[in-house]
């Protein structure tokens, strides 16, 4: 198979993967096809690709994190759940090796990133129309109904939206300013405060001389959008009202409130979740509960303290760092923190990768982003792809 033909196939499968990632749960099909293609090659070329892949620090970091789950499997009593977790995270093993080992130009990587952004915009637009036609709800209810049939949590889509905005601001394609404003509308509809705060800090502190602030179109549209949603978006207003009027930080008060009723203050719920998870970690600090048993330990804690909302919704920790300490104890928790810090270190001259890592690190404080399908496959694909983009740029490939 000629090099150019092989690269075209790789490029096409990357495009397929990016499209499937934002439309449901079928991205695994592209992973399977990419894996098959990786091994349809001459033996010496396969060896060279593997050697090349494992000289990449990202491949080593993500592979080690994946293999850590086999260790967690060994001392889990519920082997079935532990095995399911291993299967769910297989992309962290396969995709970095494939992306690092195969040849694809920086121009084709750029096209994949821009396609991802376009796919996010298209899916959001279709979802909004679908929301009006099927549910006949107001625009302020979009986060509750717009994603229900797609099957992807709006938290993951908030990360997709922010990442798309970062892509637009980095590459600045045609009409990029309009697209940024359009995506900001959907981010406000979703009302994910962590994502909104990340963009706020990005625009104000990262882009210190942010030139959009000198653009009358951007300023006018932004003021109009913010005013519109603050006054009409019920979800946005309700979240702000709940956060402002009912937030307590005293654990005893949180325990009483959450045992009596199902509260809707997500910040309070997270604080209380983290408190209960911390109690569990202290009981098994060295190795944790294993990948098959940590959720059962959490559920028992919910029952013990009658945490109504958590019992009903089967919450995870909503914090990836706490979840790693709960699964693996000190060993795995420290490795997870080290891995993220080292990714930041190797990304310091790769701005889009650095921002993406900061986005995931920030988001992992509030959600278990490395736990679910779309979070895992986003990281497993975008981290090595962005790293390769900058390495190819350095080597003029």
Quick take:
The protein has 397 residues and is an all-alpha fold.
Indicate the topology.
Blueprint: H1 3-21, H2 27-39, H3 43-53, H4 57-74, H5 79-88, H6 90-101, H7 106-135, H8 142-145, H9 154-171, H10 176-190, H11 193-206, H12 216-232, H13 234-246, H14 251-260, H15 266-283, H16 294-305, H17 308-313, H18 320-346, H19 351-363, H20 373-394
Helix pairs in contact: 1-2, 1-7, 2-6, 3-6, 4-5, 4-6, 4-18, 6-20, 7-9, 7-20, 9-10, 9-19, 10-12, 14-15, 15-18, 18-19, 19-20
Number of separate domains: 2
Describe the largest sheet.
none
Please give the alpha-carbon distance between the first and last residues.
Answer: 20 Å
Shape: globular
State which percent range the strand residues make up.
Answer: under 5%
Strand and helix order: HHHHHHHHHHHHHHHHHHHH
Number of strands: 0
Q: State the helical fraction.
A: over 70%
- Mean of residue pLDDT values: 86
Contiguous helical run count: 20
By helix and strand content, what is the structural category? mainly alpha
Unreliable segments of 5+ consecutive residues: none
Q: How would you describe this protein?
A:
With 397 residues, the protein is mainly α. It folds into 2 domains: 3-240 and 347-394, no CATH class; 247-329. The protein is 76% helix and 0% strand. Helix 6 packs parallel to helix 20 (373-394), helix 7 crosses helix 9 and helix 15 crosses helix 18 (320-346). The longest helix is centred in the N-terminal third of the chain and has 30 residues, at 106-135. The radius of gyration is 22 Å and the shape is globular. It starts with a helix and ends with a helix.
């Amino acid at each position: 198979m000629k090099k150019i033909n092989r690269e075209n196939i790789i490029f096409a499968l990357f495009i397929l993967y990016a499209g499937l990632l934002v439309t449901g749960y079928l991205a695994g099909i592209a992973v399977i096809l990419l894996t098959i293609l990786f091994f349809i090659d001459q033996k010496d070329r396969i060896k060279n690709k593997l050697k090349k892949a494992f000289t990449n620090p990202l491949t080593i970091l993500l592979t080690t994190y994946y293999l850590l789950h086999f260790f967690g499997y060994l001392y889990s009593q519920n082997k079935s759940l532990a095995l399911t977790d291993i299967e769910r995270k297989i992309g962290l093993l396969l995709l970095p090796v494939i992306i690092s080992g195969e040849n694809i130009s920086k121009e084709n990587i750029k096209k994949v990133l821009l396609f991802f952004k376009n796919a996010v915009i298209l899916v959001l637009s279709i979802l909004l129309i679908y929301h009006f036609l099927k549910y006949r709800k107001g625009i302020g209810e979009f986060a509750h109904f717009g994603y229900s049939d797609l099957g992807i949590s709006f938290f993951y889509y908030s990360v997709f939206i922010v990442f798309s905005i970062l892509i637009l601001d980095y590459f600045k394609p045609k009409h990029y300013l309009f697209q940024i404003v359009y995506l900001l509308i959907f981010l406000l509809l979703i009302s994910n405060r962590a994502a909104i705060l990340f963009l706020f800090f990005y625009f104000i502190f990262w882009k210190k001389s942010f030139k959009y602030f000198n653009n009358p179109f951007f300023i006018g549209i932004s003021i109009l959008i913010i005013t519109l949603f603050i006054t009409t978006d019920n979800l946005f207003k309700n979240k702000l009202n709940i956060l402002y009027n009912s937030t307590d930080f005293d654990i005893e008060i949180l325990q009483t409130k959450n045992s009596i009723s199902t509260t809707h203050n997500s910040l309070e719920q997270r604080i209380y979740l983290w408190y209960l998870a911390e109690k569990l970690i202290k009981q098994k600090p060295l190795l944790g509960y294993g990948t098959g048993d940590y959720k059962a330990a959490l559920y028992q804690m919910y029952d013990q303290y009658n945490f109504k909302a958590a019992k009903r919704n089967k919450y995870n920790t909503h914090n990836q760092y706490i979840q790693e300490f709960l699964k693996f104890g000190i060993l795995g928790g420290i490795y997870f923190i080290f891995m993220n810090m080292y990714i930041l270190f190797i990304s310091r001259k790769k701005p889009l990768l650095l921002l993406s890592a900061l986005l995931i690190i920030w988001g992992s404080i509030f959600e278990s982003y490395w736990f679910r399908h779309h979070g895992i496959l986003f990281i497993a694909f975008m981290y090595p792809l962005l790293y390769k983009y900058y390495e190819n740029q350095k080597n003029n490939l």
